[in-house]
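G., before I forget:
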Amino acid sequence: MQLVEPDSPKPPEVVRTAEITGWRIRLYYWTRNPHILIWSAAIIIGVGALLGWQSQAKDPQAAFVEMFRKAFGFRKGMTDEDAQQVSLPEELLKPAPQIERVITALKGRDTFDSGAITDVTDAVRKSRLAPADKSLALAYWDSLASHLGEPGADLLFLAIQARPMPFANELVGDFYITKQQTTARALQYYERELAVRPAAETVRQRILATYYQKKDFAGLGKLAKDPGYEKLLTPAISLEIAMRQRDWAGLWPPLLALQKENFTQHTPVILSCVAGAVWLLLAWQMGQPKGLFSFIIWAPLVAIPLGAASTLPVLFLDVYQSESWGLKHTGLFFQDCLFFIAGVGVREEFCKLLFFLPFVPILLARKNRLETIIIAGCVGLGFAVEENLSYFRQGDPSSAFARFLTANFFHFAATGIIGLALCDTLWNLRGKWWKFPATYAVVATAHGFYDAFLSVPAYLFVALGLSCFILLSLKFFREVARERGAATDQIFPAATLILGLAALVATILVCASREYGFEFALNAILGGALSLIIFIYMFYILFRDGLQEDAPISAPVSDLH
Amino acid sequence: MIDTLLIALAVLGFLAVIVGRHMMIRDTGGELPILWMVALRLIPFSELVYMVRHYTQAKTGGIVSIVGMWLMVPYAGTKLWEAQTSFQHRMEERQKKMNSRPEQTSEFDSVDFSEMSGEAGAHFAMARTRHLLEKEKKIQQLNARLTWWFQQFQQRRAALTGADEATLRAFNADAAAYGAFNALTKEENAELAALRAKH
């Protein structure tokens, strides 16, 4: 096209045959080309699969053992000694065998073959163990070989002495702890062992485990004050002790420790951050930033950490409401509806809103509804990212995929809508005073119903849960579409979603393979594929048509196919 | 009465779901592909996906369908709650039974040999006999240890005259340990007697 002088009487000449090129134009078309999108996603996932295959765990079982130990055990060290495979012959042939290792080795020996029993007895007798240790090892071996499931006479005799041998009382306690009716007796022997070996952590761990099994939280509370026991308690156990004793101030340290623990494992942090980053990119795109230094680019970077911090008061309220008001998950439909609506929905939306408040004065001054909904949404996104960390840590990586599409967007949309309603009310307090309380009540209730119904494995409830999700999503997209300018997106938002999803799948494949093996990672992805395809389709449509108010969404149906 | 009301609401809701889905098809002006028409009539969740895709056209039908589903919730929820409550009661009953069982002295106490087949019964009877023999052996050893310890004490007691405080303290500590061992041996003897009575 030829440029024409402004004062020229000739109108500009339009050359329609000339090709308009440039990387921006190409980017526009490429991101709207389904073939390019599908192949790009396939390449990203393929690279992820290849890296995952190459870096897969050599011993996936160890990761599962560690996962279960974390889920059910106390601090590390409780089962380490038991898990070690000590060779008895090797230990006994040493110039100075250690009684602790000999005992561990004896636990793993065959006690049903009479020949083997005699061999072990002879080997212990002939070993270079100290005479006292030798008598202890033999007494323990006799107890094991008797199959009575209780300590033998010699072991009891050694344990009950005024100055008992180290380990004798612990071994007696180990026999008694296995039966419910003798746990009190086991505790007495463990206490005696601690008098001989105050540094015996395994004994303290067994005492804690016994109290916990008995649900004796008053006893655990007393033990928790002893520095010897305090360091052995996991934050989850400390939290339960404080909760059961209604020590509300005492809840904060374990809650903080739990939050810190969320960041200690690489895989959940990586997955959660990738999932959060994709939604942040989408939020930026929705916000139509004018440049790198615009408010909409930088404010979400503050909003997300604030949102992440809002999980802490939510956890506190969760514990408080559960213990003080009896608002807990019971597995009974109506009680759970009350728990999710009056408990989960209200407290989560309240805490997120609380952490959105610092932005309110700035947003009120800027009077920009699009910025308001995006920044409030980013507070919700931060909350979801932090919450996902706990879920990823407790569950397997497949949950990352599901929560990426559901939880991240749900919190983003819910907080966005409530935040916007708050600012709308404050902008026009006389005319729209009702908007914020009404919106808050509706969104918190929808949140509660969504959580309550999705956990019921019946079509009706799942469909209604999803309808809460969909109506909330549509409301959010319509608010965003109303405020967005007429400018077309350079990069198609649906392309960001598809490529972001592909990046997340690739990350899951690499991270899960490194920890649990490639086969597990693949199964984790394929496991919930069907339900997730529905979500991906819905989001694709929402990002394709939902971000512009006019043409696509109201076009004749035939044009949209 | 309430049951009838809930059922009536659920039926009304079911009809509303069907009507809502029909309205979604109708409101598109007959331009809907055949696959969507079939899906909207038969496939679960299809109305939700369709509503996302064609919100403006499908809004009224979709909302009627959702309202219909809500009308079914009281009935479905009550049935679900009844099933859950009944299951919970059964579990609590079972737990109560487990807790009210008398304390077992060995794993053979709860075994009813009369209900077992010949071979299994013989196997368990043998195992119980072996258990009893082991327990008897243990008690013999305990008694022997106790007797030996008692004799040791008698000798030490005779030599205590004029002993210093530390020796006396050590003797008393050992005496307390002996007392505990004595009590334990008595308990074990009682357990053996109970086992023999059951055998």
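Chain A is about 70% helix and 0% strand. Residues 73-83, 550-561 of chain A have pLDDT under 50 and may be disordered.

More on Monday.
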